[in-house]
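job 3f2a | input accepted
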Amino acid sequence: MKTIHGIQYLRAAAALAVVIFHAAEKTGHHFAIGAAGVDVFFVISGFIMWVISDHRAVTPAKFIADRVRRIVPVYWLATAVMVAGAVAGLFPNMVLTPEHVLSSLFFVPARSPSSGEIWPVLVQGWTLNFEMLFYAVFAVFLILPRNRRLPAITGLFLVLVTAGFLFGFDNAVMLTYTRPIILEFVAGMFIGEFWLKGRVPPLATGSALIACSLGGFALIGLLRLPFDELTIGPLAVGLVLGILSLEAHGCMRAVALPTLLGNASYSIYLWHTFAISVAAKAGSVLGLDPMISMVVAALSGALLGVVAYLTLERPLMQRGRARPVQSLAGRAGE
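job 3f2a | predicted structure (334 res):
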């Protein structure tokens, strides 16, 4: 299966949006809308998992093994760096407990003893708790006939979200797994089904979807409006649909740098905060203009992620070569 260039570029853009969000936060600027990159990632994840499972039959055990091999080693290494830094006193505000570290390593949502938020030791790893839920559910439902999988997963996630609205859970696990944000994976799977059937929007409609989505993001960002998955999710869905429309109509070409950034998006997401923290601190010490500090911090975060991809993530993936599901996921969307 050929690489879907538009999805690669969208992964790059989503990762960079998160990087800029954190760089702005560290240097006294405002780019909260960059956090919406996570919602785009979730829609893409649902799309890719649905498409790759259609192109190659895979057992639940192998699916999970491939996902674990793809996600876990680099995440554990980044978490280990955080733990080592905390032990060395580099993060004086971080409180470590064995329970929280273990919960973080094994993707169990838990409240941080440092802040009380439902965050793992590596804060941005909170999104992986959702990803692992999705992978686990997806793997289980692989035992069903293909035509029943999408309705079954959709039904389960709708039940979870409805339960969250009705019961208002306080438990960290239930509070996490009943958030409406999990429906973004479902939306991505529906988009994947449309893609497989060749039912993508016309080029004019796709272009309009992209314009409306980017306009919505810009409006929220410029006016500093509050947002959550209920407002951002539909914009992310529209953006993915629009990009796939351009892809289907031959408007996407291979471009080296965005492709590299798309490939490296997972490593960028995991590692960027380390470089941003150092760059922002250096900018403060040197008395740099805050805008310059933000730009340097964002560039440093992206660069560290690319280096981590080339030196850590890609070599680890290459060791597991000859696994088509893993290879496609690394190339095209997750």
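job 3f2a | The CA atoms of residues 159 and 292 lie 47 Å apart.
job 3f2a | closed
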